[in-house]
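May I ask for a sample protein chain and its fold as tokens?
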Amino acid sequence: MMKRIALSVGDPNGIGPEIVLKALEALAGDAGLQVTVFGPAEVLRRAARVSGLEHVLGHVDLRPCGELPAASAVWGEVNAKAGASAVACATAAIRACQAGEFDAVVAGPHHETAIAQAGIAFSGYPSLLARVCGQREDSVFLLLVGGGLRIVHVTLHESVATALARITPELVVSATQAGVRACRMMGMAQPAVGLFGINPHASEGGLFGPEDEALVVPAAERLRALGLNITGPQGADVLLAARAHDLYVAMLHDQGHIPVKLLAPQAASALSIGADVVLTSTGHGSAMDIAGSGQARPDALLRSMRLVAGLAP
């Protein structure tokens, strides 16, 4: 069955436009995917010039949005106009998916500082997806997929202190349930789930703090009562060393990002889960240091597109 994908370019001053064109070139002739690009037309033209992909442009189904003033269109420059453009394009793609025009959204890499400079509240694509879909931000979670791992994050882009203040048993349960639903869409009927502890050794019976006993243990009990196959909480290092689970639940950003990026550098996919719209992005950033050089590789973007194409309807 053909999958219709809305593909936004991400930060127009980063590598997003270039890897979008390279991914489309690699997918030429793939009858299983119908891709519409959401982004500024001139940005795609300049990306085609620097990467020698002018021949791809004539075949791009483009929906222009997020146009960027010429003075703000500078490769590698972090600025507010570029940040606003990235959000505008992703928002347009999400809304088109809500309207039934597409099956999923694939969003190019963004730059959080540029978005912050635009005065837009943003802590990653999950928060944007939640807002556009009219949901609470804490109802949409990030699932990283790469290197043979699937790790859903209870908290994401915030200080450790803020994250700890936000973690509740209910939030851990919600993140885990969202991750299990995503695994079932990937064909795992009863995924084995490993819950990371908050503190080292999952607090070692309270020796390293009360947080795991107060927050993660009650969540694990509720999840088991729902019939889910749950291990933990245990130390993240112990669970990952065993590699015995289909899904892991990280309490903090680095618990989940470090192992996936270590095993799948520049090649992971980032699924925003918990909303009615399926959205995935690359597990890497906008690589401002090589933007406009023609060196960027589309591997992670291609994996993200093929990942959502393979999800059950």
Notes: The first helix runs from residue 16 to 26.
